[in-house]
Amino acid sequence: MNQTILSARIAEAKALRYTPAGLPALDLLLEHESEALEAGTTRQVKVQVRAVAFGTDAETLARQAIGSGFRFTGFLAALRGGKHPVLHIQSFQPDPI
Which residues of the chain have a pLDDT value below 70? Predict the structure, then answer.
């Protein structure tokens, strides 16, 4: 199963664009910070994740302020010809982080 849940803040949002089929699309950079227990030791976790949203999700996220926190749910896939994973957002809800 390819499902990802991530609490993160919007660090960057590009301009809302449209696919050749006319579907709204938004490219985002998300930032996550937390602590995780690994091998019995607390570890600081900081990560930036590229993400993309389509349709009404893209339109709604395009209106959100940079720094806004959300809990994103989606799946990971590489963009065409790419090697790095991108979170394809399927749903989100406010998360004060």
Answer: 97
Q: Are residues 97 and 7 in contact, defined by beta-carbon separation less than 8 angstroms?
A: yes
Distance CA 50, CA 33 (A): 15
Which 3 state secondary structure label does DSSP give 51? Answer: strand
Token pair of 35, please?
Answer: 């602590």
pTM of the model: 0.92
Provide CB contacts within 8 A for 63, sequence distance 6+: none
Indicate the residue type of 20.
P
How many angstroms separate the CA atoms of 15 and 25, rounded?
9
Closest CA to 87 of 73, 72, 76: 76
SS3 50: strand
